[in-house]
Amino acid sequence: MSSPLQSLYQEVILEHYRNPRNKGELEDSDVEIHMNNPTCGDEIVLQLRVRDERIEAVRFRGHGCSISQAAASMMTRQLEGRSLDDAHALTARFTEMMHGSEEAAADKSLGDLRALAGVAKFPVRVRCALLAWDALQQAAQKVRGG
Ligand code: ZN
After folding, report:
1. Is residue 146 part of a domain?
2. What does pTM read for this prediction?
3. Ligand 1 center from residue 85 Cα (angstroms)
4. Is residue 115 part of a domain?
5. In which domain, by residue range, is 78 found?
6. In contact, 64 and 43? CB cutoff 8 Å
7. CB proximity list for 139: less than 8 A, separation 6 or greater
8. How far is the CA of 53 from the centre of ligand 1 (A)?
9. Is the confidence at residue 2, as pLDDT, over 70?
């Protein structure tokens, strides 16, 4: 039995917030996107290095609430080595989960990102969880010259 608030702050989320993965500056990145979420004060800078449509390296910097920063950390862990098409599919799946899809929340391809499923119950925090993914989509568009 866990309350909605407990599921919002699962241990894995707090762990990523305290020890973010892939946080820092990427040398020779191909694209850099700044995104912010004024309603909460979250900021994310996402950098990608892309070779042959594949994400070779990814880093982020930023500050804000634990949901926004943990989501960014968890996202970057899933991205390295993925094709841009794959990353797009993952973004779509994660977004479905954030909009309350139970089918998406049960999808093992999301890995530990599923710990964020409880955020869907808090509409004002969904924006926090999607901030890094919005940056990812913009980055992919930019690197493809779109
Ligand atoms: Zn936030």
Report:
1. no
2. 0.94
3. 27
4. yes
5. 4-141
6. yes
7. 31, 32, 33, 46, 47, 48
8. 30
9. no
